[in-house]
Task: structure prediction
Amino acid sequence: MLEVSGVQVRFEAVAALDGVDLSVPTGSVTALMGPSGCGKSTLLRVVAGLQAPDAGEVTWRGRSLEGIAPHDRGFGLMFQDFALFPHRTVGENVGFGPRMTGADKDVVARRTGEVLAMVGLVGFERRPIRGLSGGEQQRVALARALAPAPELLMLDEPLGSLDRALRDRLLADVRLLFDELGLTVVYVTHDPFEAFAVADRVAVMRDGRILAAAPPVDLWHDPGSRRVAELIGLDNVLTAEQASLLAGAGLALGPDALASPHVALPADTLRLDASSAANAVVRAGTFDAGRYRVAVDVAGIELVVIASRLPIPGARVSIRVDPRGVVRLED
Amino acid sequence: MTRTVGRVVAVAIPVVFLGWFFVYPLVAILATGLTDAGRIDLSPLRDVLGSARLRGVAWFTIWQACASTILTLLVGLPAAYVLARYEFPGRRLVRAAVIVPFVLPTVVVGTAFLALLGPGGPLGVDLRRTVWAILLAHVFYNVAVVVRTVGTLWERLDPTLEDAAAMLGAGRWRAFREVTLPLLRPAIASAASIVFLFTFTSFGVILILGGFRFSTLETEIYTQATALFDLPVAAAISLLQLAGVGTLLLVYSRRQARRTVELALQARADTARRPATWRARTLVTATVTMLALLVGSPIAVLVLRSVTAGGSWTISFYRGLGASTAGALAVPPGQAIVNSLRFATAATVLALGIGMLAAVIITYRRGRLATAFDAVLMLPLGTSAVTIGFGFLVALGRPVDLRTSPWLVPVAHALVAIPFVVRAATPVMAAIPARLREAAAVLGAGPGRAWREVDLPIATRAALVGAGFAFAVSLGEFGATSFIARPSTPTLPVAIFRLLGQPGAATFGRAMALATILMALTATAIVLADRFRFGDLGDF
Result:
């Protein structure tokens, strides 16, 4: 178990980490999700030992890591943009970690072949780094991080620079690999959907603090605060005032919802209905994975609704809400 | 404590080297030209400025440099255009071939043009001691500068800009003049300045092709110092030359500072297209033919004339390198090959040791001091080689008389080569991202190990690139060497020059053979250096 408690890092006047607490249970995958500049990478560097915290403590298996150099921690880190050694081949990059443990040439070579096979790059040993595609570089970087069999594996935006189709495919591969190896993983990403897809627990970060940490399902249904709801990409996050305007326009939000400072109406809790009494005007729609995300105007408030067909912009429609899906939020 | 001592020594070695072998000789030239017996004496300067002949030399220096620059642009710009914008079979080969003359020693260039345009040449003309031979050799030598500087910008310039001008009603020529030319102007100006500087200080080519009829400030320093033994006048000319070069460099760096223009640049692949029209195909064919003739014929004729005599094949010129020559050289010409290789090895070791120390200082100690250090190290590059050689001659008799030391030639060569080592190594070393060291640390390498595994191999390869250039520079160095090489240990360029000064077909043939060998050795050093390069890192 990795325990981060009260960690602070300041860069001159700016607090990059402002009292971070986080625990990562052994054998689980925790995603660290937040916008760029929120301190995710700094937190990874603190855990890796590349950045000393100004305050707070990091412990691994109950023992403090203070004063232990990065190369003595036994952790793996896959860098953003990979940081592959340009002057070495694929095999030499991957074999670097095992070689540092003082292993024999044969052992290093066997281990290199083993992890390259894990990431689907059999026979790539002698290739130069220059000339690899983005996806291949990503796999080499992953293989290099895995090769010394680290107790804790950290990945910094591992799929960040790849295009979307490739990202979706690799995401599934990566998750499968984590499960097969039973790894303890900290996975940094700015993308909520990537975090939800890959992790057992998602920690949402902003401005150097962790705002919430929970399994994906729990987080999605109960983000707790408006800021977390916005960061994980919930649709239709509204103030209490907007909620009461919607209630006035005939949307049944339920009495509890109106008592909260904020509510979120996830797009799939709203139904678009053309037949009954109209309370909304269609603005625009975009096609999204077989359905349409339609923007509608209800009492001057813009809401996003999921629909199976795209209504004509300007059409008057009826919006209904499933009160059980309404998410109550603190500020 | 030991760290501080180490640091002081690391800074002191390059500083002492530069101070002793660069600054001190320059000061000595200044003293020779402006003082007599400890008092200010401006009479040598007055003699130089008052002499109609020397004013003629200065005038010729300037106008031949202007003419060479204009001719080089006339040849280089179409070549840059065709190589940048058209995709055709053999394009990569042509691009590589255009660069070749630039890395050849000046003596080889002079000799090759003598072989092509001199007496007994295949064209049946004798342009030796005409200005045409000089101008053509200068174009041959410098066309690479224009193709590289302008061409690399041109091929990344978005061609849709010209299309846009065409859509707005501009004809092709108009579109070029109004859109492309202004965008290219900084690169053209920069290429023209460099070509002007090179031809202004041209030495070997003028000495070989101009004979006694044409002399420039550079060759005049040589003549005054080594033939007429008038050191004060030679020093005064040197000062004029230094002032001219200094002004040029100042103007150039000012221009460079202002040249940042936001350009619409594209990846190269997008801008090159196959020549589709009849006109385009003619243009490509004509340009490639012209380049092939310009670059290929002097080299080919040089090699050919080293292996033919009276219309039949022979290797007698190469065999003859082992035999002594009457009058031209104190030792058999073949000995010059051994001398050059020895000197080049010593110069490379010196340049590498000092240059890498300097590169480490510049890379790891950023700040104003490092920037100043960087600039000072580049000074020998902007100083003409003749000035350096002449400075050695007047300065290095004291405090220790080094003028008879076998180290004198390697030291001069190292001085010229250090900027190349620093330029090859510093950008590569500075570009090693800290993340690579961190990646090594996370993978289990301690700080020392990480440096050995990451920085050292990359720096070593950069050093090898620098070493290749230093070796090539030393092999071809002529300006400084002509002052300081001792008769018993001539270098290849010196031996070639001496052989060319003697009459007789056998001597001429041996000069051709030696020049061919020098060309081959230089090419080998450059090709080896190039193999150690990382992609586009490094300035050369």
About this structure: Chain A has two domains: 2-231, 237-329. Chain A touches chain B at residues 48-50, 69-72, 74-77, 79, 81, 83-87, 96-97, 100-101, 130, 144-145, 148 (CB under 8 Å). The radius of gyration of chain A is 24 Å. Residues 2-231 of chain A form a domain with the Rossmann fold fold (CATH 3.40.50.300).
